[in-house]
Amino acid sequence: MTNVAVHLEAQQPSLHAHVHDVPASGAAHVKGQQHPIKLYLVVWGWLFVLSACSYLVDYFHFQGYLRWSLILLFMILKAGLIVAVFMHMAWERLALSYAILLPPVLVLVFVAIMVFESDYTHLIRVLFFAPAT
Amino acid sequence: MAETLLTNPGASPAPAAGLRGFADDWSSDQRAFKNVSWGKAMMWIFLLSDTFIFSCFLLSYMTARMSTTVPWPNPSEVFALTIGGHHIPLILIAIMTFVLISSSGTMAMAVNFGYRRDRVKTAVLMLVTAALGATFVGMQAFEWTKLIMEGVRPWENPWGAAQFGSSFFMITGFHGTHVTFGVIFLIAIARKVWRGDFDVERRGFFTSRKGHYEIVEIMGLYWHFVDLVWVFIFAFFYLW
User: Fold this and answer.
1) Among A93, A105, A117, A124, which would you mutate to test the B interface (most chain B Cβ atoms within 10 Å of its Cβ)?
2) pLDDT, position B62
3) Residue B122 falls within a domain, yes or no?
4) Closest to A96 (Cβ–Cβ): which among B44, B102, B240?
5) Which uninterrupted H or E stretch holds A82?
6) Euclidean distance between the first and final Cα of chain B, in Å?
7) Which domain holds residue B153?
8) Residues B48, A104: C-beta atoms closer than 8 Å
């Protein structure tokens, strides 16, 4: 019986060691999310660059699909950096990431519904409520 | 045997990673979020619900803008400022964006120093974050004042579609309220950090619970979310 217990005990792997959970030098024992400060500064810099880029899209008067795709691209990159690094989602277990990140994606269905709805409203307004010329 | 199992509940095998871990966590008949405290999980779930609120605002704005037959005011012109004789489009919003991003940067570093139990640096960085947040709200107040003086109302404005005013006040007002509450909570928690509440495990006066430095990260989640929402408002309302 004792042998079995020992055997089971030995089978259990050591606590999941995470690359990024390595305590910083100088601190004896550090709990929680711990990453080098440099990482935050780099992300901060990228957020500045991406914001400047999206501002320049407006400044240089890009129009049409080029404007929209650039705006969306910079927006998604910025949102991704904030959620992944600043909010530490990149280091959370998938159980949490999926629970939080998947539901907002479903909002896109709502967007599609409202696009059809507003197109319809617009059509009705043009057909029946156009101002008399 | 049964006793061994009961007296040794802590020695469970390390959770699997990847999709297998995802399935394990959710089907474990226990708590689903294994290495996340209830406080952090609850903040994430609150932020998820807040995401839906802001989604609804942005969606109603999209619907209003797509369905109106009157031309939409050009935000690039509406939010332009004349500084030193130069007419610069959207400059105030750009500055507000940089201020809010900077506050997110200082907040991320405050979380980091919090986990290193560096009391003073954490408190100072949180206060810098709060100051940047207050600056943002101040600039928003300036922007509101300017637009109201120019005749923007929720029901009309001088440049085009009437829904512009209602969408603008609703979306930026709700976001500004979030920033304001964030600033208040930042100051409250910075005070606790400064006083050393989380080092001596002093009990909170309201909850009678011992605080931990994790509250700095939870506060940070809220603050980064406010920044995140601004990213979407900036793209959809100001740039579109």
Assistant:
1) A93
2) 95
3) yes
4) B44
5) none
6) 66
7) 38-238
8) yes
